[in-house]
Amino acid sequence: MNIRLIAGQYGGRIIEGSGTNRTHPMGERIRGSLFNMIASELEGAQVLDAFAGSGSLGLEALSRGAAHATFVERDRVAQNVITNNIRSLGVDGATKLVKAPVASWLETTHQTFDIIFADPPYHDLQLSTVGKLQKLLKPNGLMVLSYTGKGEVPTELGVVVVDNRSYGDAVLAFYRRESA
Questions:
Q1: How many domains in the chain?
Q2: CATH number reported for the structural domain that contains residue 67 in this entry
Q3: First-to-last CA distance in the chain?
Q4: Of all residues in the chain, what percent carry a pLDDT higher than 90?
Q5: Positive or negative: CA dihedral 20, 26, 27, 31
Q6: What digits encode the pLDDT tens for the residues 73-85?
Q7: Residue 176, SS3 per DSSP
Q8: H-helix segments, the chain
Q9: Structure confidence by residue, pLDDT tens digits, 58-72
Q10: Cβ contacts of 137 within 8 Å, gap of 6 or more
Q11: pTM above the 0.85 mark?
């Protein structure tokens, strides 16, 4: 399944889907709505696309002005798809692909990000890992979690849920790190 980037420098370009049923790409309508809501925060942003799948969230962010996107993905098929998508758009210099489970990578990184996208597999939400991702937010940084709407969403000290949006079987939870 192919995915269309919606807007920005690469708007209209087609990228590969993850090619595996272990990931679920965010629908175009939801992705469009999400990026319209956060458009003012993208220019020059350092972005993390955790549980990256095809990389569509990080690539859409780059298309709309983010400075750099880090993709974290454990599935080998999806890793190859992300690599192909990065090459086809020619954004190698603005990206980094981490080939590891998000939980393992979290134990080794000290990077912080302006925007974090967390779109874990719906059959394995890994909410404890999602909670730990919040520690990587810069002051006033934004994290968006896509999940089924079932279960309690985690929050870390100093991070608050500022919005929730429901789109059929997907819910987006928006977190904001309080300013230092």
A1: 1
A2: 3.40.50.150
A3: 42
A4: 77
A5: negative
A6: 999 999 999 999 9
A7: strand
A8: 28-38, 56-63, 76-89, 102-106, 127-133
A9: 999 999 999 999 999
A10: 112, 113, 116, 143, 159, 175, 177
A11: yes
